[in-house]
């Protein structure tokens, strides 16, 4: 069964010919513009929308979908999320990129002592870099900058992350 991942959202209509203003995941303009179709989730099923044309406009795209030719046909989709297959996402990941669901639940260890420090409960972004939310043994949630000097080892296969546990990092 195909898994789907959200890659954008229909923010509004644009003009009267069925075009949509589409927002996309942060820093993923190139990825979104490479898609030839997206999916809408309607009644727990995914409906394919073929992209006929797309052009950047400010911080979003103006997208024309096949078969949607008027404002009345695009309006019901206003506010709906757009998805693509997880397989498509994985094909476009760079060497040190991961899907959030791959990281959540992974145990975190000290790289020097191999002591278990906690596990990842989420991933966020502060504008400068990604942050791992790690629930420690003391049940505190700490934010760890997801950068190579602090998180040098991510082993998805063995479900382990090793960090340089700098003083004060997990307080």
Helix content: 10-25%
Give the CATH superfamily of the largest domain: RimM
The run of helices and strands is EEHEEEHEHHEEEEEE
Unreliably modeled segments: none
User: What is the correct CATH architecture of the largest domain?
Assistant: Beta Barrel
Structural class, by secondary structure, is mainly beta
What portion of residues belong to β-strands? over 45%
At CATH level 3, the topology of the largest domain is: Elongation Factor Tu (Ef-tu), domain 3
Which CATH C-level class of the largest domain is it? Mainly Beta
> How many strands in all?
12
Q: Whole-number average pLDDT?
A: 89
- Tally of individual domains: 2
Number of helices: 4
Please state the CA-atom Rg, rounded to the nearest Å.
20 Å
Amino-to-carboxy terminus distance: 41 Å
Q: In order across it, which strands form the biggest sheet?
A: 1-2-5-4-3-6
What would you say this structure looks like, in words?
There is one protein chain. Strand 8 and strand 9 form a beta hairpin. This protein has helices spanning 29-33, 71-74, 86-91, 100-103; strands spanning 4-14, 19-24, 37-42, 45-57, 60-65, 81-85, 107-110, 116-125, 130-136, 141-145, 153-155, 160-163. With 171 residues, it is mainly beta. The protein has a six-stranded antiparallel β-barrel with strand order 1-2-5-4-3-6. It has four helices and twelve strands. It folds into two domains: 4-91, Elongation Factor Tu (Ef-tu), domain 3 (Beta Barrel), CATH 2.40.30.60; 100-163, SH3 type barrels (Roll), CATH 2.30.30.240. 19% of the residues are buried.
């Amino acid at each position: 069964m195909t898994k789907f991942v959200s890659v954008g959202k229909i923010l509004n209509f644009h003009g009267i010919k069925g075009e949509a203003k589409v927002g996309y995941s942060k820093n993923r303009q190139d990825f979104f513009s490479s898609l030839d179709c997206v999916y809408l989730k309607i009644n727990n099923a995914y409906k394919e929308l073929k992209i006929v044309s797309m052009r950047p406009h400010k911080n979003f795209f103006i997208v024309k979908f096949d078969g949607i030719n008027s404002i009345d046909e695009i309006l019901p989709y206003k506010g709906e999320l757009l998805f693509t297959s997880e397989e498509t996402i994985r094909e476009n990941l760079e060497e040190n990129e991961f899907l959030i669901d791959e990281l959540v639940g992974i145990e975190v260890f000290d790289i020097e002592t191999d002591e278990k420090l906690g596990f990842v409960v989420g991933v966020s972004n502060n504008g400068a870099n990604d942050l791992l939310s790690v629930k420690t043994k003391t049940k505190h949630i700490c934010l760890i900058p997801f950068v190579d000097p602090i998180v040098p080892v991510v082993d998805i296969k063995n479900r382990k992350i090793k960090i340089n546990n700098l003083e004060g990092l997990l307080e």
